[in-house]
């Protein structure tokens, strides 16, 4: 991991076009501003981790467990 | 597998099913946390016409329940960074500021899971499926939707939202 020290209002640039700016520092909370092209996704890491865990959990779900979702309705087609 | 060839897949939930290459849905990057799970087949739930099961064809024990999010969250909208959709064969997406609007032949479904309190939907990371090209990927929404949206009502009675015209074609279990 590259470790840099930055103060408020200072920035780092990642690649050609991702800029991370320290917007505010208050206690142990740092507010970051991220400038990136539309095609680059930016997410909090814990969100990614939560999705990973959820997928792995969901992959164990059994059809019996989803019966409360509702009964088959009569519908044309299919 | 060549087109027209049959393959038998032994699954833990649905017994042994026979699949053909043209039935497969290909997720080039698998799912987040399940990156090796790339080839899937879509099955209908026996009890519930609104529910589909994506069964992995390489790992018989891996399957996820999927529903159209608008059945339970009528105003659900998906906004993603456009690079998240690079895995799919999509023509240029019409864009509006930060968001890309998905054409009608692209299906968006969400995965059903179980929490201690009951069933939930992952509204934060839906699956986007290009039905014609038989390709899909999991994306992360730019919006603040929950990973575990609690389900409090059965699909059939949850809302007046008509069954979305963008519903996936469900292949019935033989």
Description:
- The complex is a heterodimer of chains A (78) and B (174).
- Chain A has a domain at 11-62.
- Chain A is built from one helix and three strands.
- Chain A has a three-stranded antiparallel β-sheet with strand order 1-2-3, with no helix packed on it.
- The N and C termini of chain A lie far apart (53 Å).
- With 78 residues, chain A is of the alpha+beta class.
- Helix content of chain A is 18%, strand content 26%.
- Chain B has a single domain, classed as BH3618-like, CATH 2.30.290.
- Chain B contains one helix and 13 strands, in the order βββββββββββββα.
- Chain B has 174 residues and is mostly beta strands.
- The relative contact order of chain B is 0.21.
- Chain B is globular and about 40 Å long.
- In chain B, strand 5 (52-56) and strand 6 (63-67) form a beta hairpin.
- Classes of the chains: A alpha+beta (78), B mainly beta (174).
How many angstroms separate the termini of chain B? 21 Å
Distance between the termini of chain A: 53 Å
Query: What class would the helix/strand composition of chain B place it in?
Result: mainly beta
The domain tally of chain B reads: 1
Enumerate the spans of chain B where pLDDT stays under 50 for 5 or more consecutive residues: 157-174
**Main interface by residue count:** A-B, 32 and 51 residues
- The Rg value of chain B, from CA coordinates, equals 16 Å
Structural class of chain A: alpha+beta
Portion in beta strands of chain A: 25-35%
Helix content of chain B: under 10%
Main sheet of chain A, how many strands, which sense, barrel?
A: 3 strands, antiparallel
In the predicted model, the low-confidence regions of chain A spanning at least 5 consecutive residues are 72-78
